[in-house]
Model the fold of this input.
Amino acid sequence: MSVQALYQQKRMSAADAIRVVKNGDTIVVPTAVGEPPSLLTALSEARRDFRDVQVSQILAVRKYGYLDPETVENVRHTAYFYSGATRPGGKDGWVDFIPAYFSEMPQLINRGLMPADVVFSMASPMDEHGFFSLALAADYTMAAIERARVVVLEVNPNVPFANGDCHIHISQVAALCESDDPILEVGLPKIGPVQEAIGKYVADMIPDGATLQIGYGGIPDAVVMQLTDKHDLGIHTEMVGDGIMSLVEAGVVTNRKKNYHTGKMLATFALGSKKLYQFMHRNPALEMHPVDFTNDPYLAGQNDNLHAINATMQIDFLGQCGSESLGSIPYSGTGGQSDFVRAANRSNGGKAFIVLPSTAKDDTISRIVPTLSAGTHVSTSKNDINYVVTEFGVAQLRGKTAKQRTEALIGIAHPNFRGELREAAKKLKLL
Done:
């Protein structure tokens, strides 16, 4: 049977396609805009027909009907990383989460430690050879496809066909539906004077020829905005966004100086504008790969001069970063921060930056604290931390004693809090 005939045989409505799901199944959904809205809407509408079905995903970007505390016995969400859509359920306890390094999720799926019975994913149109591209998120989805009983695709002409290890053949697909809605666009975060000041400190420490990993957020994007005078930058990251695209358009990113996959940008998921998704389409300079390739600290660390830029919400005197919870209340997830901090530490000439404003809530709370708030989830450990940057400067911590770290961090805290931080440090015998 031709690939076109197979396609027509497996093509159906979203309402029919979800009927491959059985009670007790875990449905794995890709990161962010890789999620298939027609399939998840159909699942939501039929959720009371199911029992004990679980949807597992990083960063759900829409509030679907199945995200309902009244029907968690039918269909429930398990977060690999919380988002605005799932955070309320995490706070109230009806959405659970799985702590894990992003880079290790494919391994956890392969070993059966994280279930994957069904895959629901967005996909590009099929090419003449019968392949679809999961360009928006290869992440852990490619591993789930190998493990799953059935794979269901939502085929959309607005999904780019990207290069890399992100393709699935029609013979691997159990069912597919079609949609032509625009891919959800996610704008750049707001950047103010604080973010700009932090961005300048980081940008000044990035040399020509560096390879970049850039996390999501206002401060990483503020760094990007101040790199337009650099030369021959490379990209090895987890998320490709509009900031990276703007550097390519400015001629700043050439990937020529990369010693690992020279000439290629590597990423595992995309999040941005329609222009970004068009930029990705059959772009020979960009490859989308599973996260155990992009985020593996050993592999990513083979890039010389790897500079990783990630944000945190709170940091203590030892350098422990609370980047994913507010005290014991979950807020996001581990993601790739720890992966790339360790990768940059391994890299010859690499630097790992953790960035944060010095205060929160209109300068009423210091984000640099003697000890993390009770119950805080530690994302980057004291043993991995290196450069910490606020709007007041840079503290280099790796290789430093506890007392040296304390002094350096107080030096980049907001001036209004330095006195009380010193007093707390004295009580802890750190000054």
